[in-house]
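It would be a great kindness if you could assist me with a short task in structural biology. The matter concerns a single protein, recorded as an amino acid sequence and a row of backbone structure tokens. Kindly check, if you would, that the fold set down in the tokens agrees with what the sequence suggests. Thank you for your consideration; the sequence and its tokens are set out here:
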Amino acid sequence: MNTCSWPRTETARLFLPESTVELSDAVQVLDARTGTSLPTGEEAQSNERHRAAGRFLNVPLATCRPVAPSAWTDIVPIAPDAVPDADST
């Protein structure tokens, strides 16, 4: 949410519950305004005993304008064959 009077860029921290998407399933975040894939950093749940199971997604959101202060994103699965294999590097 951009409450400033100028466009700005921020990093959104989104929680993705394991009940919605399994931790082993790869996802990508899309900018719903343009359909562009956004760079995403994943962070494990930091307090597994007292919080819902899941993961955090850190997503930079560019040009959040004050005219439309909210930025919409879509979290979609990545096809298994599109995920780089750790052994192939």
About this structure: The mean pLDDT is 80. Residues 8-79 form one domain.
